[in-house]
Amino acid sequence: MAIQVRTSHESDFDAVAGLIFESTNAWYESHGHGKIFSGSPADCRLFCDVYEDLDPGGCLVAVETSTQNIVGSCFVHPRETHMSLGIMNASPAAAGLGVAKSLLREIIRMAEEAKKPLRLFSSAFNLDSYSLYTRHGFAPYAVFQDMIFQVPEEGVTSDVISTDGVRPASLDDLDHIVALEQKIWGCSRRGDWEYFIRNERGIWHVSVIESAKGEITGVLASVNHPGSNMLGPGIAVDSDAAASLVLAELNVHRGRSPVFLVPAADKKLVALMYGLGARNCELHVGQSLGPAPDIRGVVMPTFMPETG
Q: pTM to 2 decimals?
């Protein structure tokens, strides 16, 4: 059985959504965890739609050549400063055929051609995935705690975390957000932030926090969709600003249980999240093929969209 990697077409999106739904849930359930996606396969079309909005043609599929059945998929996201990849999926029925390896090698080729670092976040639970990436030269640069918080219908308050200075983001903030992200970890993804703020799909929300001098010191996006309910991406100058943004965005998702990634090395932010009532549900490792980012502040990545 031979595998071919090609760019996906819109006619593939339902099949890709089904693959993401089935293969992700199958892996977690087979390793003693609950389903990641609790709705229907159609919910995972979110990945195809959002990534096509941001990076047209950025979804690669692996097909079995004799049947043309899709047995693997991955998304690649070119940014100004780097490329990132995810979500990577392979059909359990195609185990042993090197599906993920074929997709990864094609994306590495694309990154090398663009002369950009290639970055991703991989689950620390999935050692096969971790091994795949490190065997191809990726090296870990940060560990993140996946935290989940059940937001009461009446919202959440804190005696320790203040939301003073937090407000909804606008397009007028875009230049300041881009400059802040460049300062905090040397990355640029202007198109992503503009996409979140414009919110043409009606599923995003973005907050910024300002200092007493009126300077933006952090930004945090979130998504509310049956296929993904997460806070992130986010950046902030320090733990307090990040915590304020998390509290504000949690209150956007009343009655839901969003997940967000917190840098494990940031003891203050982790403690603030524990104090709020968040609990750990997984660990992820930031990995880079090529120079790793130099983080001088707080970075909160996400998988919707992948923000390596």
A: 0.96
Fold agreement (3-116, 145-300): yes
Q: Are 125 and 33 in contact (CB under 8 A)?
A: yes
Domain 3-116 CATH assignment equals 3.40.50.200? no
pLDDT in tens, 101-140: 999 999 999 999 999 999 999 999 999 999 999 999 999 9
- Residue 263 CB contacts under 8 Å (≥ 6 apart), including other chains: 142, 143, 144, 145, 269, 295, 298, 299, 300
3-state per-residue secondary structure call for the chain? CCEEEEECCHHHHHHHHHHHHHHHHHHHHHCCCCCCCCCCHHHHHHHHHHHHHHCCCCEEEEEECCCCEEEEEEEEEECCCCEEECCCEECHHHCCCCHHHHHHHHHHHHHHHHCCCEEEEEECCCHHHHHHHHHCCCEEEEEEEEEECCCCCCCCCCCCCCCCCEEECCHHHHHHHHHHHHHHHCCCCHHHHHHHHHCCCCCEEEEEEECCCCCEEEEEEEEEECCEEEEEEEEECCHHHHHHHHHHHHHHHCCCCCEEEEECCCHHHHHHHHHHCCEEEEEEEEEEECCCCCCCCEEECCECCECC
CATH architecture assigned to 145-300: 3-Layer(aba) Sandwich (3.40)
CB of 286 within 8 A of CB of 86? no
Residues 6+ apart with CB under 8 A from 163: 244, 247, 248
